[in-house]
Amino acid sequence: MQGKSNSRQRVIPDYEFENKKKRVQFTLKLIEGHLHINIARIGSMYPYAKVIFANEVWKSDPSQIGGTKPKWNQIYSFSLSNQEHYKSQYTTSL
């Protein structure tokens, strides 16, 4: 006896696929830094910040104030899918 096959097919709307691909937004606000050593021999140093989050790298503009207490007031947003969110790491450096 041959089994009865179910030939029904379900149409999956596009919005169901979009719901599974939710993006997570991570917003970084870079305000200021406090550096302990001034490495500029002559003049001022103009440091920048470099942030590595998951697979994305962001580099800020050099601080216009410079010196050992730089200020930026810059905002940057990283976006991740749900799968990337659980595997994410971040690294910062000045």
From TrEMBL:
Q: Which domain of life is it from?
A: Eukaryota
Q: Which InterPro entries match?
A: C2_domain_sf (IPR035892)
UniProt-recorded name of the protein: C2 domain-containing protein
